[in-house]
Amino acid sequence: MEVSMKGTRLVRSFFFLALFAATMLPTAVLGQTTTWTTNGYKVLKNGTPFFMKGVDYAPVPIGAVPDNSPYGDYFTPNQAAFFNRDIPAMRDMGVNCIRLYAGSPANSANYGDFLNALYNGGDRPIYVIMTSFINAGDMLNASAVAGYVNDYTTMAQNLKNYPAVMGFSIGNELNSGGSIDSPDFWANMDKIAAAVRTNAPDKLTIVAMVDDGNDTLKAGIGKIPHIMCWGLNVYRGPDWGGTGNNIFTQYGQLTASDVKPLIITEYGTPASTRQNPGGESTDIILLPNNAQAQGDFLVTQWQGMAANADSSTQVSCGGMIFDWVDEWWKAGNPSLHDPGPNNAYQGGAFAGGYWDEEWFGINGVTTGSPGTLEPRAAITSLKTEWSKTSHDGSEIYGNTTAAIAGSVSAINSVVIEEE
User: What pTM did the predictor assign?
Assistant: First the structure.
């Protein structure tokens, strides 16, 4: 919009008013940016391999549910108590990236404080995969998809210049809606991703899918050219499925014709067990020694994931531990720390033998908004493990990184046209 003004004094006054206003609003860190690309099965930041030491982040406090305001959006200035509590603790632990489960296109222009706190002026920055909620049942609804395209366009335009922004996840677990066999499911997902690529071409586009025994991979490979990375939420035990069922081996075999990096968008174990584990039970307790078994389980998973990255069959580029902090709303009364909702014994799939949705946090939390973190043993265990490599973790890929620096994925050469 053009504005015509007469008089030097008015022009000067307007200029200084605008300058003052700009200094009062959070903006992207001047003179710095991050460009995210892929090469084969690797993710690159500014042309250099990056390995994810990540956590999933949904700091819903005790007594709250994300169906109510602020709808899981704890990233605006009026929710700063949450991220000011959590970001320094993440940085101290060695976290280099996080993934969100909520985000408001309308609020995204106000995420500057959150994003700049993550970036920390480039000192041990924490990068973030943004998202906005998508109802899995809407993926065959053309009108709903058009709305999601607009949502992601808005977020991409508002956030593309922040160096903390690593990329955008097109929803979460969209394959839970039962539509993976429909060509429209994949075409609509790719349409949303294309909007992001058009408006934020330097950022990653990913999906985060339920690990359903590879049915989704088999259905979707080759159908989502604007998605740069597959993400899978994987719960196959500490050894990633073991011999004959290893997720990394299977992924490499399935994607040989359509290579994209694999991000483990969820992995982990609850910090809970039962007073008498072994059968279906609700007598829930914290694992002994501040849930040390949770920490040991996660270190074993991390070492297996890193070992894949340092092998000739590398497909992994790291992942996100589920979850940063317990979410008390997931299995019943949000003011109670409930077991379950599946109270069947799961054996070695989890450290304590049970799939307790409200207890996956590597931090407990006290009542309050935001409440106080109660770090579990996993924090120290993972900090020790992650400190063995650089913040960006590029050397985890082993001797395969030298030829990669400066390269880009074929996806970045796709010419994207607005429809």
Answer: 0.89
